[in-house]
Amino acid sequence: MKNQLRQKSKEIRSRLDTALLSGRIKSNLFSMPEYKGSQNILSYYSFGSEADTREYFQDKTKNWYLPRIEGEELVICPYSINSSSEFDKQVNYLCQNKYKIFEPVAPCINDISIIDMILVPALCADINGYRIGYGKGYYDRLLKKFNKAYKVILIFNELLNNCVYPENFDEKCDFIVTDKQIIKI
After folding, report:
1. What pLDDT band is residue 87 in, cutting at 50, 70 and 90?
2. 71 domain residue, yes or no
3. Which domain holds residue 13?
4. Average pLDDT over residues 9-13
5. CA 155: distance to chain centroid?
6. Number of domains making up the chain
7. Rounded distance, CA 5 to CA 163, Å?
8. What pairing do the DSSP bridges indicate for beta strands 117-120 and 40-42?
9. pLDDT (average), residues 25-38
10. Is residue 121 part of a domain?
11. Three-state secondary structure readout of 78-97
């Protein structure tokens, strides 16, 4: 069932004006009190036709972090698009991983408890806060490590479903932000 939802979601997403809809998602996210109150935000670096996060990093009122794959886990690394010191030059450098997704080369952080909000990618999601990703489980394993950070799915409204058939290893998120609405779970 999940593979069918993945395929259907990719087909729907390929027909959307993702640039326009991504801008609306950004406006909705940036309007949230939870976003305004967060200092350290873990985001994904958008890939393909995902909700585009690349403009978010221009918000200099936040400290930005990106995940990097190490083995079967995601580690968290600082990221900045405007850095000038020698250390910071490493912080704004990205390279493509085995899935062709850009990720940071900077050293990972040890204290993940500093993260206030996590922006989570999804192929589709349901109104109960569950999502379907690409099927490798990286984000579900990462999200299990966080108790206090807001977990926010960014997704196009057309990709919301009544149910995505969550399994025991799927992690529930706190918010869904679409181009049309903000859903608090």
Report:
1. very low
2. yes
3. 2-112+127-184
4. 95
5. 9
6. 1
7. 10
8. parallel
9. 98
10. no
11. EECCCCCCHHHHHHCCEEEC
Q: What is the mean pLDDT of residues 127-144?
A: 92
pLDDT tier at 92, thresholds 50, 70, 90: low
Is 118 inside any structural domain?
A: no
Q: Which CATH number characterizes residue 14's domain? A: 3.40.50.10420
Q: What is the pLDDT of residue 141?
A: 94
Instruction: Determine the Cα–Cα distance for residues 21 and 12; give it in Å rounded to an integer.
Output: 13
Residue whose structure tokens are 């991983």: 97
**117 domain residue, yes or no:** no
**Which of 36-45, 158-167, 176-185 is least confident?**
158-167
Own/partner long-range contacts of 55-62 (Cβ < 8 Å, ≥24 apart) = 55/26, 56/26, 56/29, 56/119, 57/81, 59/30, 62/38
Closest CA relative to residue 34, chosen from 131, 148, 170: 148
